[in-house]
Please model this.
Amino acid sequence: MKIALITSFFKPIGGQELVTKSLFNQLRNAGHTVYVITTRNAWLNSNSIITLETLRRIPEKLLIPGTPLTDYLIAINLAEKLRKIQPNIIHVQDEYILPAVILANKLLSLPCVCSCHNNVSCFSNKSASSRERITTTIFKMRKKNYISCLKHVDAIISVSEYIKKELISVGVESTKITTIYNVHDFPDDMENKGSPTSPKSNTVLFALGRLVWYKGFEVLIEAMKIISPKDSNIKLIIAGNGIELQHLKHLVATYKLEHSVSFTGKVSEIELIKLYKEADIVLLPSIFPDPAPLISMEAMYYGKPLIASNIGGIPESVNHGVNGFLVPPNDPKKTANAILELVNNPGLRYHMGKKGREEFEKKFSNDELISRTLKLYQTQL
Model:
């Protein structure tokens, strides 16, 4: 089968781009011809990556929210590329480029599948900056157009049951929607994976993500303020970059937690493996509904217990009391209590990490996810 994955951006920005890369690799491993068509230079060097060169002069700030003009320009370029490669099916990876895909496909009438990675009905204007509030308002307008465009695709993949319910709540036909969890390319370094933690002086907590308000990293620092006087051997490592970094560092300094909390900034794949291996507990403190976080899957893959917010699609991977604990979002006290419970019970940590790895193999196996994706493609041909 010849498959065209279409995405606005294809570089290491966030989860959706990583998932597109993984889908590209896994479909090719399954023996299919796969192309990625994107509006910008890509982070993979392959003849199968096609960029829409004439769009490079258009600022990303215009491409992300979209305008009728940018949608039209993308559509014209996209139709030309699709005519050349003649795919059997097109698979749209993000909401920003979908309107242009619909315009282009009016000329081509190719079977079209769209993956929904993000919230469609849940918004908040609460933000650390006026710039983010403006961005949220623009995205609300874009979402309306996106939902309208979904009527013109043949099938929809929701990346969690949570997203499926959201889609139905805004009027998308349930018969069009299939839930298929995100495929992944986690580094296959099995050494010490899921093994009991070796004796060491500190218990290491690990959190990863873009440092923005809705990821909830401030909650972790507030929790560490509660924990630190009780156990000074608990260390929190936060990996990632974002506009909240200086605010979070200021909060750490204000609470005099420099000995307990550290920031790594952006990390490489090799560094990420090391951080997961050194971690005793992985934290996922989102305060805004996270549709299908890769971090919870990564923690399960590496055999680490999770403490995560009971919100969005997170409970679909974090089974309370089995492979971790779910806590109310934006609740530092209950987060601190859950951390202390696992810190004081290494046996439970090991058992939860082992169960997480078992759950990962049952529910998130790439073989099963790719098989379901290909079956959905076949039904559209």
Notes: Confidence is low (pLDDT under 50) at residues 194-198. The chain has two domains: 2-184+365-380, 203-363. The longest strand covers residues 2-7. The domain at 2-184+365-380 is CATH 3.40.50.2000 (Rossmann fold).
